[in-house]
């Protein structure tokens, strides 16, 4: 069985590993701060630049709750259309940007630099507004000598999307001026002790390890313990945003300090390549990215599926846990024909797990099972 997320082993907390994650940040980021979620990091980042205008542009191909911090700050979220290759539709972006735009958000999808990232940077320079480099998907991805998330004035990244942790994100302040003017909210920082969320997450991780082979049981444990934390599925985007309002968990910080970026990146890359091999002969599935440039730490292996529901059923049958279409779009995007490409992408893009606790041979075995 291939699990959806990496699980936390107790030995992972005690083994001595170099604190490379922190060194990586110290090397590439001007200033950073810890948060419980990417959305609340985005909120504090945007508050720092909110005197620059009244609206914020963000790509239409985006999970619905990501616009919530903008609304909470009393700013207007404006979605710009994106192309089939996940780049900005430049004409549409230019139609929506104006002298009252505080910031434009770009998104490095699935751990890869967004196509057209330089174009977004040059448009924000032209209009004198801020550029937010949303790198929620992959804190360890490098584009040459650049850590993703550090291209704009402000960046965010979500730790919980790549590490086995209950919550966690970082805000990057990429200029000295912004670092000086930034005023953190009470959600910045690390909780000073283990709390109920950490304990629940640990119990869940232990239960997952014990019952790893039993998919049904695993499902029910997941339901049982998902009463809080980032995994909780609540009714509205606002509730999901509110749910992420917290400091970084103490457990997350311990795992973060102990993590080995090079080995996580290497494992995820091997698993990405394994999915490439396994799916290359299928005519109903096309990878979103044909190549895996050096330095990229993929969040998932995304594919465009001709028949997404059938593919998900097949994957479930052969033991792949957590494959799903991505993302759930904002209602205003869903209902506007201007965003047809984003809507189609969200219906047909299926993401497959590549996390560091999967062995590539398990993916090869899934390939064999799928072809039977
Ligand atoms: C592109 C993007 N930005 C921001 C976020 C928000 O991150 P978090 O869930 O850590 O609040 C997400 C979450 O899925 C995301 O996909």
From TrEMBL:
One BP annotation, GO: polysaccharide biosynthetic process
Q: Which SUPFAM superfamilies match?
A: PLP-dependent transferases
Keyword Cell membrane present in the record's keywords: the answer is no
Q: Which Pfam families match?
A: DegT_DnrJ_EryC1
Q: Which domain of life is it from?
A: Archaea
Q: Could you tell me the keywords of this UniProt record?
A: Pyridoxal phosphate
Gene3D superfamilies this protein is in? Type I PLP-dependent aspartate aminotransferase-like (Major domain) (3.40.640.10)
One MF term from GO for this chain?
pyridoxal phosphate binding
Of which family is this protein a member? Belongs to the DegT/DnrJ/EryC1 family.
For this protein, the record's PANTHER family field holds:
DTDP-4-AMINO-4,6-DIDEOXYGALACTOSE TRANSAMINASE (PTHR30244:SF34), TRANSAMINASE (PTHR30244)
Q: What is this protein called?
A: dTDP-4-amino-4,6-dideoxygalactose transaminase
